[in-house]
Amino acid sequence: MSDRPSVAETGGQGRLAENIAHFARALRAAGLPVGPGSVLDAVAAVEAARVGDRSDFYWSLHAVFVKKHEHSEIFQQAFRIFWRRKGMIEKIIASMSPRSPAAPGQEEKKPEAGALRVAEALLQSGREEDEPRQQDMEVSARLTVSEREVLQGKDFAQMTAAEIARAQRAITDLKLPDDEVRTRRMVAAVRGRRIDPRRSFRRSLRGGGAVIELAFHERALRHPPIVALCDISGSMSDYTRLFLHFLHTLTEQRRRVHTFLFGTRLTNVTRSLKSRDPDEALARCSAQVQDWSGGTRIGTCLHQFNREWSRRVLGQGAVVLLFTDGLERDGSAGLPREMERLHHSCRRLVWLNPLLRFDGFEAKAQGIRAMLPHVDEFRPIHNLASMEALALALAEDESGEADPRKWLKRVG
Amino acid sequence: MAQLPASIDDTVKLLAHGEYVADRALATVVFLALRMGRPLLLEGEAGVGKTEIAKVLAGTLGRRLIRLQCYEGLDVSSAVYEWNYAGQMMAIRLAEAEGVVDRARLEDDIFSERYLVRRPLLQALSPDPAGAPVLLIDELDRTDEAFEAFLLEVLSDFQVTIPEFGTVKAPEKPIIVVTSNRTREIHDALKRRCLYHWVDYPDTERELAILRAKAPKAPARLSREIVAFVQAIRSQDLFKVPGVAETLDWASALVELDAVALDPALVSDTLGALLKYQDDIQAMQAGKAKAILDEIKAEATGKARAV
């Protein structure tokens, strides 16, 4: 790389292409999806634009290499570092009068300090914490008929590392919801009420047009998008990991699952969860998040979600799974408004709360009281059985058993 | 038929001629799209002028504008082509009456240009005396992924394959502009075929230029205040910040009201032209609009004094 000749030395187009190819490689290393095809495009673009200054050069390459708004900033950094070091642009456009660089100089992207440590910490914490609980687990284990049944009803928080591993496998085998909504797209059907003129006609032509044999079509069905907002504060940590496993399984099976984690800030981990291997996916998530096991600012995070993401991911009849215990650190001033906004923007809002596992649970905490009126369903999520129930509930609509109003009434 | 621009500067001029005030970055990508014959994918918030680019290009280049508005469930028969079934049926009956027995010939007749109903995508690929048309595929994010797949062939090879008929290829590449509001992510395969640009809110200077071009009736002082106010509330914590379209709407509302300068009462009466969510309007009502107004006025007088 270091003996890359500069353009001025050779002056040929070949060198320009080579330099752009090197730049493309740098972009790829920085995480932009840049294929070999775009290198050719970029060379063509720079030649076509007959760049007059640094800014033209910048935007010409930008037009080809950047395919996503978020990538703009990475591109800018890479451009600045790559082309300044070699002082190349000036040479490429030597014949024209150079103006001051137009690429806006924003602050560098902060390195994610301690991200790795967080990942390691997360991967270990589950095990250490579970050591002391081993004993009472054994007691309950003796009472069981089948191991699997114990696992079913067992609270995630009381599982040992080994049990967690087994639970994870069980989650992978879980029967996932086959909820489907009608789209406006039509697909061929054997019988139905709508006549498909195109196919009917083609069929009748096959027979010479003498008889018209009717063909039908119906509305296509497909899974609605699922958006999971997942609380990762300290009070939830025993449940978060397994819920993420559930989401990972879901992400593998369906096309449109978006996952966000929040504690004191909101992080979109959808891409990280797409890794095939669940452990790798989770490790990637934890590397991405900076506020594991801290406090919760539900209101602030929902506000951020509503502002930045709701319009991008809540289209086409999305179901929102809000996974949190509702214990708000910041007081619940803005919370009802944000919940209401969220409720209005999605088709169905399901609140999953592990606290519901306690028989004597009452909706007393301020945050919980603020949020309950705005959800469609209120469900527990503390063991495999409740996870299965969730999958079933997603498949069928409104059974009424998870109606949040009954919790509100109970408190009065 | 106007010539395609020969340089980036020409592109800026061309767009300015159509009353579109473009920054250099946008002009570069438009120029490259025209020059390299590649589709242009524009993303950005609602009301920043994405659709307008296609209209202005068609207007200034003297090309026909073909618009495909996307919606959920958009399919081939409403986007690409459809057969005229009634006509075909009639042709078959006539052939029968005449006693035509040649099945192959009959089929050739029936699946011919005559009975082909051209929808926007196919229209855009047909020859046009005014030059290749401008094809605007608006709000692509509103359709589902299945429809994007239909577009791939059109966007990369400028052709459409009709099973009964064959492949229709454009004699001259149409100018394709695809817009998206990003309510979902467009597939990578489609993005790869396009030149991409994120259309952002304009800065003060450019917004003022846009306002001058589009609302020439607004007095100079009012225009400056409108732009300063809009720029200020874009930095506020709102659910939907106003785009350029809203700025223009607001300006024309104020002109209709014969306003010469902004005052708090006027702002709160006409805020509906600028903000479209009740929460946002409420947040602005409670004295906040006045605070912003005072601030921009103080800044304006400060500047005047400095000069």
Number of domains of chain B: 3
Number of strands of chain B: 9
User: Can you list the strand order of the major beta sheet of chain B?
Assistant: 2-5-8-1-9
- Give me the secondary-structure category of chain B: alpha/beta
- What does the overall shape of chain B look like? elongated
Question: Which architecture name of the largest domain in chain A does CATH use?
Answer: 3-Layer(aba) Sandwich
What is the rounded Rg of chain B? Answer: 25 Å
How large is the share of residues in beta strands of chain A?
5-15%
- Structural class determined from secondary elements of chain A: alpha/beta
* Highest CATH level, the class of the largest domain in chain A: Alpha Beta
How helix-rich are the residues of chain A, as a percent range?
A: 40-55%
The domain count of chain A comes to 4
Number of helices of chain A: 19
Strand percent estimate of chain B: 5-15%
Mean pLDDT of chain A: 74
The gist of it:
Chain A has 412 residues and is α/β, with parallel strands linked by helices. Chain A has helices at residues 7-10, 13-29, 36-49, 54-65, 71-86, 88-92, 115-130, 134-142, 147-153, 161-172, 197-206, 237-253, 278-288, 298-308, 310-313, 335-345, 366-371, 384-395, 405-411; strands at residues 181-189, 194-195, 216-222, 226-231, 257-262, 266-268, 319-323, 348-352, 377-379.
Q: Could you characterize what this model shows?
A:
The complex is a heterodimer of chains A (412) and B (307). Chain A has 412 residues and is α/β, with parallel strands linked by helices. Chain A has four domains: 7-92; 118-172, no CATH class; 181-222, no CATH class; 226-411, Rossmann fold (3-Layer(aba) Sandwich), CATH 3.40.50. Helices cover 49% and strands 11% of the residues of chain A. Chain A has helices at 7-10, 13-29, 36-49, 54-65, 71-86, 88-92, 115-130, 134-142, 147-153, 161-172, 197-206, 237-253, 278-288, 298-308, 310-313, 335-345, 366-371, 384-395, 405-411; strands at residues 181-189, 194-195, 216-222, 226-231, 257-262, 266-268, 319-323, 348-352, 377-379. In chain A, strands 6-5-4-7-8-9 form a six-stranded mixed beta sheet. A three-stranded antiparallel beta sheet of chain A has the order 1-3-2. In chain A, helix 14 runs parallel beside helix 16. The model of chain A is unreliable at 1-11 and 95-145 (pLDDT under 50). In chain B, helix 1 crosses helix 2 (24-36), helix 10 (204-214) packs across helix 12 and helix 11 (220-234) packs across helix 15. Chain B starts with 7 loop residues before the first helix and ends with a helix. Chain B has helices at residues 8-17, 24-36, 50-61, 76-79, 85-98, 103-110, 120-125, 145-157, 188-192, 204-214, 220-234, 244-256, 264-270, 278-285, 288-306; strands at 40-43, 65-69, 81-83, 116-118, 134-138, 159-162, 166-169, 175-180, 195-198. Chain B folds into three domains: 8-74 and 119-198, P-loop containing nucleotide triphosphate hydrolases (Rossmann fold), CATH 3.40.50.300; 81-118, no CATH class; 204-298. Chain B has a five-stranded parallel beta sheet with strand order 2-5-8-1-9. A two-stranded antiparallel ribbon of chain B has the order 3-4. In chain B, strands 6-7 form a two-stranded antiparallel sheet. The longest helix of chain B has 19 residues, at 288-306. With 307 residues, chain B is an alpha/beta fold. Chain B is built from 15 helices and nine strands. The mean pLDDT of chain B is 89. The chains are: A alpha/beta (412), B alpha/beta (307).
